[in-house]
Amino acid sequence: MGILIYDLLTVVGALGLFLIGMKMVSEALQKIAGSKMRSLLSAKTSNPVIGVLVGFLVTVIIQSSSATTVMVVSFVNAGLMSLFESISVIMGANIGTTITGWIIALLGFKIQMSTYSLPLIAVGLMFIFSRNANKRSWGEFLVGFALLFLGLHFLKGAISVGGENSEVFGFVKKISELGFYSTLLYVLFGAILTVLIQSSSATLVFTFVLCVQAWIPFYLAAAMVLGENVGTTVTANWVAREGNISAKRAARVHLVFNLVGVAWMLMVFPWFIEFIECWILNPMKQPDSLMLSASKPLAISIFHTSFNLLNVLLFIWFIPSINRFLESVLPFEETEKEEFRLKYISTGMLSTPELSIVQARKEVNFFGKHTRKMFTIVRELMRESDELKAEQVFKRIQKYENICDNIEIEIANYLTQVSQGKLSDSGRRKSRAMLRLIDDLESIGDHNYNLAKVVHRMRAENIVFSSQILGKIELMFDLVEESLLVMWENLVEPDDNINLIKAKKIEEEINKYRNQLKLEHLDNLKNDVYKYDVGIMFNDLFSECEKLADYIINVSEALYDIKN
After folding, report:
1. Which of 114, 299, 309, 452 has its CA 20 to 30 A from that of 527?
2. Same domain, yes or no, for 399 and 501?
3. 279, 311, 329: which is the final residue of a domain?
4. How confident is residue 274, by pLDDT bands cut at 50, 70 and 90?
5. Can you give the pTM of this predicted structure?
């Protein structure tokens, strides 16, 4: 029993070393690729073939299909990518993840890369201690790459050639002789193991070693690969649980695509395995036990790639149908249509602080979009004649104001976390400017709510404006809406195109018009043109609009500061 526990811990430790190496490689590649990789992913992918290619390339670059799928889910959640576009990208990620298997099969079993692991670590350490961030990332990549193959080396040693540990090997042998039930058991085993260790690459390496060391035949190794394809979908679905309905749909794409793929493959499994084993890899038709050990990982890699490639070729024609199916299974709820929430930073910090700054800026832009929308709802409240509908509109504005408060806190906390990482001077300046931005945007939300409260109070006190006063308020509202439009344009434009002159010009017009209305208001009170309570409401509305405009211009000024 003691020996069995020791062997088990050795296997887990070897897998752990491989996982650490894989994690370092993936994170280092993400840092090196930087925003270019995310720009590639956010490119328009309405053409399914281009979408598949994008998903494939991104996954090859970062060496993690889970990371690609999680990014796709966050992009769909943010509205950067439609569900239709995400389906083809996820399909491409499924093909891209098979490249990892080829790298490990060729370098870990054919070339024995572990022999060069220690020299690679030595070279990597020299880069890690560099002051240059890009060189540090390359150092982390080299060290991770070396640890990955060291882990594989120890795993091969820990799982001895079949028969040495008779108890465990006897049990594995027994469940491998149940015919088609054995295939199903190993599909389930592959899925569970991938879910537990959260890495299909690590499970694939474990499968390689089990097959090479003659613990399981090739066809059961292929069954484990099918299970790994299902198990890897859990990560994206876990991330999407807090996202909106669009994010949930995108995550389900991965699950449905792989489940249906495994289902059709199981129907033709014996013939497909025979084709790969006998006609591609083993034309001499030798028994599995006589196949060269180094050839077995190649056979598994061929199965892995051909299965995912065929699955994509089969289902790429049905993307519109998959899109409609998921929309019918997961329909929008009424609250989902109305509510806005964190979109870009809901899945946590990215691997590098600089990329996280980019995500935060996108979140700020999205925040600005909805403070602008909030003002249009205030105007809707002003024009609503039905009391019941007006009450519902006012509750919507209350809800928006609460969300604005929460979003400000979330973005501020996120930026604080980002600032604790290694940011460039430019990144730190942008972080400080964005903290000012979200404070001003939250204040815009507050003043929108103040305007709504004035209108709500007017209704409660049965105060009705004359057409002349309404016309003046509408003109002030038009000016504020124009200033919000300029603010929004400045938010979404590149930093080099910030139009501060236009923003200031509109703000000056609002100030002048407020001063004009204030003088008219005092004259009207003096000449009894309207009652005092009507005048108070009128004054509150145009004064609140001017205060709102002050924070709107602050946003454009903060954006200008980011530019400089």
Report:
1. 452
2. yes
3. 329
4. confident
5. 0.59
